[in-house]
Design goal:
8-stranded mixed sheet; 10 helices; 8 strands
Length: 267
């Protein structure tokens, strides 16, 4: 999977936390109400944003295993979370999820979670992961999976071809085979339902206005770069679109995401 810089992850973290779907989050927290201990495995943890968002809501004593294949991000996660949450036991492990031993990784986990991950992996990866999670009876909760929806204000004639090209780019191989991209939440939901899980979904869009100009600016540059790699939109159109976005005095960018909770029957 392509790497992400700590600076980018820090820039997006406040928007991520603000976007998380409150109803799906509350359902996840209710599923563990009254537990004395919750054991959590966080896949593709980055610098620990998911822990910082979810752990305060869970309330119980918690054991977190932070999993990532990037040693720089893991080190940042350990620095930023160790000692910050009084009731949490924290461990970090460097793992390539494309070739992991799921049974060993999850062993006695209660909850498997992730943030902004599953649009980057393949449908077969999701199917295999869901099968292993279900075999172990874990709950599953993921947030901020890109859903293919994007809107830009003020509008530009190239908005639609830019969105379509970006969505095509999202389906390219990120290290796990052709990525599920915008279909990822549907793939997740179907996979867990086949294993008898109850699934709850909810939208969690970014709304990037003039309060989040640095994030919006970097996002739009990233979109332009990704679209350029596809060769589906002429370079001059991409340049014109980006100049329009970056020069607009009151621009708003909306990027769609979806959160999903999957619980074994009986939970």
């Amino acid at each position: 999977m392509s790497g992400f810089s700590p600076d980018w992850l820090a820039l997006r973290e406040p928007a991520d936390h603000a976007a998380i779907n409150a109803e799906v989050r509350a359902a996840c927290v209710r599923a563990f109400a009254g537990r004395e201990l919750v054991k959590v495995v966080d896949l593709g943890c980055g610098t620990g944003s998911n822990l910082r968002s979810l752990a305060p809501a869970l309330g119980a004593r918690q054991q977190w295993l932070l999993v990532d294949n990037d040693p720089v991000l893991l080190a940042a996660a350990k620095r930023s979370t160790t000692g910050s949450f009084g009731k949490i036991d924290l461990a970090c492990t460097q793992v390539d999820l494309s070739s992991t031993d799921w049974r060993s990784l999850l062993h006695d986990a209660d909850l498997v979670t992730a943030s902004a991950l599953f649009d980057l992996v393949s449908a077969p990866f999701i199917e295999a992961m869901a099968s292993e999670i279900a075999a172990m009876g874990c709950a599953f909760y993921t947030v901020l999976t890109y859903d293919g929806i994007a809107a830009f204000l003020p509008e530009h004639p190239a908005d639609r071809p830019m969105r379509e090209a970006f969505n095509r780019h999202q389906q390219t191989d990120k290290g796990f085979g052709p990525a599920a991209g915008p279909a990822a939440t549907d793939v997740l939901a179907n996979a867990f339902r086949r294993h008898g899980y109850k699934v709850r979904r909810g939208k969690s869009p970014w709304v990037l206005d003039n309060i989040r100009v640095p994030l919006r600016s970097e996002l739009e540059k990233g979109w332009a770069a990704a679209v350029r790699e596809t060769s589906l939109v002429p370079d001059h159109t991409i340049d014109n679109w980006l100049a329009h976005r970056q020069g607009a005095p009151s621009a708003v960018t909306i990027i769609g995401h979806e959160d999903l909770l999957a619980l074994p029957e009986g939970d």
